[in-house]
Structure formats: C-alpha cells, structure tokens
C-alpha cells in the first residue's frame, strides 16, 4: 500500500525549494544570478548527478531479473517520442520543446525512487534504478535536441554537451563497473546532491514572473493529461500484453505516472524557449500528481 505521507513530504519539499527561489528572485537576486545559476546546473551539477545515477551494481542475476523492466522502459521512451511528435503539433511553436521533453522525461528519479522503495522495498529500488537507465539516455540525447533552434551541426553540439558527455561516462562506468578514487567520488556526489535543490530554486526564480492563471493554460492541462494518465495507461497495457510479472508491470506504471522533470524548466531557461511555460508544466503536473499517483497505485 502506498504511504501517502512520504509522497506528500516529497512534494512539500519540492514546493518549499521552489518558494525559496520565488522569494529571493522577487526580493534580492537579479537576472545575472539566474543566468549564472542556469549555467552552473547545466555544466556542473546535472553532469555529476547523471554520472552518479549510472553507478549501479551490475551482475548477471540483476540483468536477468530486469529484462522486462528494461524492455518496458525502452518501449516507453519510444512511445513518448511518438506522442510528443503527434499530440502537441497544434501547440505554440516555442512551447513544443518543453512539451515534448516533459513527455519524454518524468520526475521519476526524485519522486519515483522513494515511492518504488515504499511499495516494493529494496528490490523496488534496485529495479527502479534499472528502469531509469533508458530515460537518462534519451533525455540527454533526443531530449536536448528538442531545444536547439539551429539544426546545423546539431550532432557535434549535442555530443559535446556536458550532460551527454556525462551520459557517455556513466555508461562506461556502469558497463565496466569502474570505481572512482574516494576523494573524487565524494566530490562528484557532493555536487550531485545539490542538483535537486538548485534546480527547484531556479524554477522558483522563473516562476516569479508567472501569473497564477497561466498555470491553467490549456496546453499545460493537456500535457498533464498525457503525462499523468495516457502514458501510464499505455505502459500498463503494454506490460500486460507482453506477459510481464506483476512487479515489473506495476513498477513501470508507477514510474511513468510521475510529473514533469525539473530539468524541463532548466533547459528551457538555458536555451531561451519560454521557461515560464516550462515551469507551469512542472508545477501543475507535480500538483496534479498528488491525485494521479494514489490512483495508479491502486492498480499495481
């Protein structure tokens, strides 16, 4: 049974971090600080967080037990790319990158992992880590590509992006089970631990420019329906169709029922693609997930 206290605590933590950014942007900090924080997150904190996320203990038994999880996760990413291309064609051009990225990338790393642990214990945490591997690859390859306005030499720019470099390093670390020296490992973890706090603080700064009614934008509400209802429904149906065990099907459904990832707003700010709208997607879907997550947990 899902412990809603844990979900509420996590959601409350996110909104408090966001509120801090909102207050400091209104009273103290300026546009230069916001631009610098955006670069710091993209160029240092997120790459460290990505590298840490690939430090998964791998063995033959784990790979065997997680084959369904990896297959469902890969299927989900492909479906999300297709849904993003088809369902948001009528939306404003400058909003489409964030809609497509937020469809591809949920907040399953921060919110999903503790929920998986609460529902399924240590095994849930281990398998959830495996489920997130395809998402982390897709969100920093295809996902980053959504935001680029200049399509010339796009491959060169993507492959040298700090977050994509971090994905490559992370995959090598995972494949060969490489371990950093203790001092380097602690430094990387220290920067990684700052990622959620600083990302939500930045989102709060951007939110200081948004009117309350903008959170009820029809495009945002349409996205929330896709993110919190349609994608989990497709994932759950596919899991049952391929005969996945109940643990794999249930966990996959819960993890894809998470709200938009905070990196949606970070990337929108970095590339100047209507960050206020991206914040609306993150904040509104996070709030509505308080309804969606308990409902989906009843099916798993």
Explain what you see.
- There is one protein chain.
- This protein is an all-alpha fold.
- It has a single domain (4-297), classed as Up-down Bundle (Na+/H+ antiporter like fold), CATH 1.20.1530.20.
- Helix content is 77%, strand content 0%.
- It contains 15 helices and no strands.
- The model has no long low-confidence stretch (mean pLDDT 88).
Topology:
Layout: H1 4-27, H2 31-53, H3 60-65, H4 67-87, H5 96-104, H6 108-139, H7 142-145, H8 154-159, H9 162-176, H10 182-193, H11 195-207, H12 218-241, H13 246-256, H14 263-271, H15 275-297
Helix pairs in contact: 1-6, 1-11, 1-15, 2-9, 2-10, 2-11, 2-14, 4-5, 4-6, 4-12, 4-13, 5-14, 6-13, 11-14, 11-15, 12-13, 12-15, 14-15
* Beta-strand share of residues: under 5%
User: SSE string, helix = H, strand = E?
Assistant: HHHHHHHHHHHHHHH
Strand tally? 0
Q: Termini distance?
A: 9 Å
Give the biggest sheet: none
